[in-house]
Amino acid sequence: MKISGNDLFVTAMKKEGVDTIFAYPGGMVVNLLDALHDCHSIDLVLPRHEQGLIHAADGYARATGKVGVCLVTSGPGATNLVTGIANANYDSIPLVCFTGQVPEHLIGNDAFQEVDIVGITRNVAKFVIMVRDREMLAQRIKEAFYIARSGKPGPVLVDLPTDVMAQLGSTSYPTEVSIRGYKPNKGVHVGQLKKAIALLKEAKKPMFLIGGGVNLAHAQEEMTELCEKLNIPVVTTVMGKGAIDTEHPLYVGNIGMHGSYAANRTANECDLMFSIGCRFNDRVTGNVAKFAPNAKVVHIDIEAAAISRNVTVDIPIVADAKMAIRKILDHTEPMEHSEWIGEIKGWDREHPLGIQVKVGVNPKHIMDTLNKVYADRDTIYASDVGQHQMWASQYLKLDATHRLIQSGGLGTMGFGLPAAVGAQIGCPGKAVVSISGDGGFQMNIQELATAVCQELPLVNIVLNNTYLGMVRQMQELFHDKKYTITCLRAHKTCRGRCGTPGWSCRDYVPEFVKIAEAYRSKGFLVTEDSELEETIIKAREYAEEHNRPVIIECAIAPYELVMPMIRGGSSFEEIIF
Fold it and tell me: What is the pLDDT along the chain (577 residues), one digit of tens a residue?
């Protein structure tokens, strides 16, 4: 018996264990959707924009550990995925994105809704391919899922011409994959590992620098066991936060541009930096020439190309984070570094994190209140990008039951809300809270409709400072307070009159409470710290009772800054408090 490529696609999804596809219809995928119509084991989710769609698939993948699956039509449907593909690629998130394509004989002829999506995404995806042979369809789909989830995970795009998908062919689906030239590393070089352990034994001031790779490898338990056994302080990147409980006595804080004083000084003073799953990007290192000046560096990463790309390392180890940590546990004995740890705790007491607020809601208080209200709930926080993201990373308490997902490498505004939608769909038994700024929230605000129609009890915290706050902060500190196009209250008539005597700022647009009501949900406005806890509890109860998303708008003073800060390209010595 022979079946169409569209029917084989359904078989492939079942074989790969796909339970959710984030899809948007169009002419070049309508036949695929027809084949999926009666497949009740796969939930088709219809977001309101393809960028929201892929961010939702991304959030689903981060929350569940499964491969996120997208299906869109050709042309603009495909090009609207590009930012999300790049975002997932930077953060090593496994996605398989299927794009419809015009029939082969029209490719290259400027057909309606035809684009070379393979060429467009080649440099921002882990792998891309167009299927031109019906008999290779099953193999290509199998390879796509294997490539997406193996080695360093990442997004894979598979372009599907409609004529190929209409052709009849074999019903079989492969059980194994063998790709020439693609052999992900599955072991740990014990010789290199022993060299690294020898450095650990010699070090007087060692530290672990943990990146997102440890979280992606689901190695939080092993990482905690390792730092406790060796009694070594742990510093994380923003993406690595949560690798150990943030209340753990060995956890110092985040490193980098908006990291804590103690974490950055630990990196500056250590004699051994033992890094696992970290890219050493510029937001972490600042001035590379002055980064960790006294330290020997051990770098464990699953991607060989990432090692010594930014920071020259003394001992490179290409390995999966969890596997490497287990091997280190097998080959080490307990160590003692109490004096070094005491010194670090003294730095933290000298310059603790904190925000003193005179007007509006204190951003730290928002995070502290979330910590309190959701202390007894298995919770996923999904952050957008901006000042609120840094406050969330600084003050949220994370552990085995409280996780934070966010856009790290690409820093994509508009990520938070749709990612929360995907996370809630993937983890219906958990509480999901999105944390956004007023700018980023508006970038994909239409996904509130998706949350309403999917009956998701999302709680959306919107920190409204009426500015694009992160850029405004740079303008205040480094550009003589020239707030060029960062004020979200600015109207055309404001030009040249801002700050002049008698001039008053225009009303903010939109009113988020009314936006919530327009989406047939409920909104809350908080203007004082004292209102916050009761409002969050009330909003959560409403969301769970009605299975609807809610918005809590928190009025933040426009001039609140994320501190401390190390200016891009600068070193620890230039930290600003």
Answer: 899 999 999 999 999 999 999 999 999 999 999 999 999 999 999 999 999 999 999 999 999 999 999 999 999 999 999 999 999 999 999 999 999 999 999 999 999 999 999 999 999 999 999 999 999 999 999 999 999 999 999 999 999 999 999 999 999 999 999 899 898 888 899 899 999 999 999 999 999 999 999 999 999 999 999 999 999 999 999 999 999 999 999 999 999 999 999 999 999 999 999 999 999 999 999 999 999 999 999 999 999 999 999 999 999 999 999 999 999 999 999 999 999 999 999 999 999 999 988 899 999 999 999 999 999 999 999 999 999 999 999 999 999 999 999 999 999 999 999 999 999 999 999 999 999 999 999 999 999 999 999 999 999 999 999 999 999 999 999 999 999 999 999 999 998 888 788 888 899 999 999 999 999 999 999 999 999 999 999 999 999 999 999 999 999 999 999 999 999 999 999 999 9
Residue with tokens 């099953």: 138
Give the number of C-alpha atoms closer than 13 A to the C-alpha of residue 459, restricted to the C-beta side: 25
pTM beyond 0.85: the answer is yes
Question: Would you give the end-to-end CA distance of the chain in angstroms?
Answer: 71
Please give, one letter per residue, the 3-state secondary structure of 300-316.
EECCHHHCCCCCCCCEE
94, 48, 382, 362 alpha-carbon torsion, rounded to 10°: 160
Residue (of 21, 18, 19, 24) closest to 446 by Cα position? 24
- Helix (H) or strand (E) run with residue 86 in it: helix 82-91
Contacts of 108 (CB under 8 A, 6+ apart): none
Angle at which helix 416-426 crosses helix 50-64, to 10 degrees, equals 50
CA distance linking residue 255 with residue 236, whole number of Å: 6
DSSP code string of 318-355 = ES-HHHHHHHHHHH------HHHHHHHHHHHHHS----
CA dist 80 and 60 (Å) reads: 18
